[in-house]
Amino acid sequence: MATFDRRTSRDGKQVVRVRIRMRGYPDQSATFKGMKAAKDWAKVTEAAIIEGRHFSDQKAKRRTLSEAIERYSEHNLLKLSASEQRNRTRHLAFWKKHLGKITLAHLCNDAEPIREVKQKLKRSKTTRGEIRSASTINRYHASLSKLFTCAMRWGWANSNPMKLVEKDEEPAGRDRYLNETELAALLEATAVSKDPYLDIVVKLALTTGGRYAEIMGLTWANVSIERETVTFRDTKNKESRTVPLVEPALTAVTTLYENRRQDTELLFAWTRPDLPKNIQKGWQNALEAAVVENFTFHDLRHTCASYLAMNGASPSELAAVLGQKTLAMVKRYSHVSEPHTAELVRKMAAKRFVEADGVNDD
Q1: pLDDT in tens, 282-296
Q2: What is the per-residue burial (b if ≥16 Cβ within 10 Å, else e) of 219-241?
Q3: Is 219 helix (H, G, I), strand (E, B) or coil?
Q4: Tens digits of per-residue pLDDT, 104-133?
Q5: Which residue of 91, 119, 309, 362 has the fewest CB atoms within a 10 Å radius of its CB?
Q6: Cα gap 72→29, rounded to integer Å
Q7: C-alpha torsion sign, points 160, 163, 168, 172
């Protein structure tokens, strides 16, 4: 219920002070030059309080994007995997640099500043002098969107302006994987590499489908020689997964275990026992020696998935090995499994229908 009082301000002018008292909510008050403005404010504010918007709006007017990022970094980032923490921290640092002083209320009501800064991001180059891909731009987009979603839960924002900012169209996922000739050449090159870990790491990637960060972050607590398994814990989707440790990776890891370092739990530690070795130089040298072009380390994961599909793995089985939460990401391997699927159908038809026809003919 709103009440209105006419008062004289310190400078001698007549003003109207309005106060809203509603059971269960803090009192709200404001001062206006005239009665009409006071009544308009009271009407809008009462409606906003009833709908649950008013207090979040007030918080949003006081809170800046920088404050929201600081709170998010303190309380929400810790729930993510280490690699995701690093990526999201980098993304949010960019948004904070360019939009940090702007209030959440302003950004919720006008997404144009976000669009303008996003264009700057698309025009800028990485530390390597490269233009960011559409998928990378969309990761920056997603990080800020998740921040606003949290801000809404805190009552700091009443909407997510990122829903009004278009995402960039991403190209289809890479289907690059090693053919048998390339596979043999690459394994021959890694076997003679000067990097003592490269051969083992590549064999693990090919047989487990593990990501680079997952493999390089392995500790001996994640490996069971006896059960012949390896468990990836610090994964992208924050869920652990255990996969079989098979040849040729099994023998390589067993040998590494028998000669393991005593000053670290990491499988692939280097000078500093608490940090994994960087194998990128050895990897690039091996690619050149094997004459394998247009191929990244992550494509070893695609190679593992493609070979599994060729050998009859179902989408759900692929998802289990790769640690995918949905089947959408493994559908890209359906084309390599089609010959196997066709053979399964032919065998089923021959057994169930052709044989039945033969029985009927008798």
Answers
A1: 999 999 999 999 899
A2: ebebbeeeeeebbbbbbbeeeeb
A3: strand
A4: 988 988 889 999 999 999 988 887 788 888
A5: 362
A6: 31
A7: positive
Q: Give the HSE-up count for residue 94: Cα atoms under 13 Å, Cβ half-sphere.
A: 22
Tell me the domains of the chain and their CATH numbers.
2-52 (no CATH), 65-164 (1.10.150), 180-341 (1.10.443.10)
Q: Contact, 327 vs 309, CB < 8 A?
A: no
- Calculate the CA 164 to chain-centre distance: 21
Assess contact for 157 and 60: CB atoms under 8 A. Answer: yes
- Confidence band of 362 (pLDDT split at 50, 70, 90): very low
DSSP for residue 332: G
In angstroms, the CA 274 to CA 189 distance is 28
Q: How remote is the C-alpha of 125 from its chain's centroid? A: 21
Q: Which helix (H) or strand (E) holds 14?
A: strand 14-20
Which whole-number Å values give the CA distances from 344 to 251, 313, 326, 352, in the listed order?
33, 12, 25, 12
Burial class (CB in 10 A: 0-12, 13-18, 19+), 42: buried
Mean pLDDT of all residues in the chain? 83
Interatomic CA distance for residues 215 and 305, integer angstroms: 16
Residue the block writes with tokens 């869920």: 239
Q: How far is the C-alpha of 343 from the C-alpha of 358, rounded, in Å?
A: 21
∠ CA 227-229-234, nearest 5°, is 140
Structure tokens at 12: 């001698």
Report the C-alpha gap between 228 and 187 in whole angstroms.
22
More confident residue, 40 or 28: 40
Which two tokens mark 36? 């009409």
Which helix (H) or strand (E) segment holds residue 243: the answer is strand 241-244
